[in-house]
Amino acid sequence: MDLEQIYQKALRLVPINNEEGTSLYKYAPVEDLMFIANKLRQVHNPGNIVGWMIDRNVNLTNICFSQCTFCNFCRKKGSDDAYITSTEEYITKIDELYSLGGDQLLLQGGMNPDLDISFYIDLFRNLKKLYPSLKLHALGPPEIVYLAKKERLSFAEVLSRLAEAGLDSLPGAGAEILSDRVRKVVSPAKSTTPEWLDVMREAHKLNLPTSATMMYGHIETIEERIEHLILIRDLQAERPPNHYGFITFVPWPFQDEGTVLREKHGIKSSYNGPDYIRMIAISRIILNNIRNIQASILTVGREIGMLSLHSGANDLGSIMIEENVVSAAGAKNRFDAKEMQSIIREAGFVPGRRNQKYELINTSPNTSG
Ligand code: SF4
């Protein structure tokens, strides 16, 4: 396949197909991919601002029936350290979030079989009553599928009820790799590929802002990574005019420390820095209709995060005041507001603090460190 022809197609924002994407991933020199992705980043986000934000990841509960083989965080019901976060704990965490200048909670599962939709509705309403300016970026397609089955409701109905109760945006959690061959091994009890996509389709119709993610570097093939990107791009193309759709795409590598996937199946993370750069660049090239590409600095660290900004990424995500899932599997990077901004400047860009909708915020965070 003629790589030059694919480059030209990509630069004209013409959707490239699975075979072309696979050829780019496997055979294109990384410097070519970086060059093209960087040009495309300028098309979608002219200028030199790199986004970052302050939010807090709070886990609603660590009880989860799913028992994904890459997850060290989940506990079975009845475990000594199983929990459901209490209102008092939310208040302490949100007060701290506000004191650091943030106003968004990323609320994630487990999928606790004892919690039904009324639990989430009551929780969202209560948090919004206590903190009217709080933004809830909460749950994800697997939880929506689970609640829809449990309550015998459509995905649209579950999403509408949660949005009415205070859900502001839906994270692209639980995408891992959108291939049912892969999902049967890494997350067999979670939503299937068509279900994940259907939930997002409904969220886009309701104009709920969403994100898309990929957790790669385990058992998937290059072809499956490319297919994942194309499924997301094609769904984005379906969104109603002027609706948010996928605001951003975030790929991150499998963190293998102590996971069932590694300990029982011998699957180690295939992550390495140059491959992440390739992944970021390919994401920018294939996702010709998603404006923002975020590098996961929490999992790849400072240097690769900086290099990602020259390879198509225009965002470094959140300083994440609390994170319990990827850190339980070995992700050790942590940055405060000051460090995040200095990383962006060191990489040659201007830090732009933003909200979940990728709108710039002018106020300074209430933290110097
Ligand atoms: S990754 Fe999420 S859904 Fe899977 S076991 Fe862990 S908490 Fe449950």
Please name the defining characteristics of this protein.
369 residues; alpha/beta; three-stranded parallel sheet; 9 strands; globular; binds iron/sulfur cluster
Question: What's a concise summary of this model?
Answer:
The protein has 14 helices and 9 strands.
Structural account:
The protein has 369 residues and is an alpha/beta fold. 43% of the residues lie in helices and 12% in strands. The chain has helices at 3-11, 18-27, 30-44, 87-99, 117-130, 141-151, 155-165, 180-186, 193-205, 222-238, 260-263, 273-286, 297-308, 337-346; strands spanning 49-53, 56-59, 104-108, 135-138, 210-216, 246-253, 292-293, 315-318, 350-353. It has a three-stranded parallel β-sheet. The protein has a three-stranded parallel β-sheet with strand order 2-3-4, with helices on one face. A three-stranded parallel β-sheet has the order 5-6-7. Helix 5 (117-130) links the parallel strand 3 and strand 4 (135-138). The radius of gyration is 20 Å and the shape is globular. The structure holds iron/sulfur cluster. Iron/sulfur cluster binds at residues 64, 66-68, 71, 73-74, 109-111, 142, 187, 190. Iron/sulfur cluster (SF4) binds at residues 64, 66-68, 71, 73-74, 109-111, 142, 187, 190.
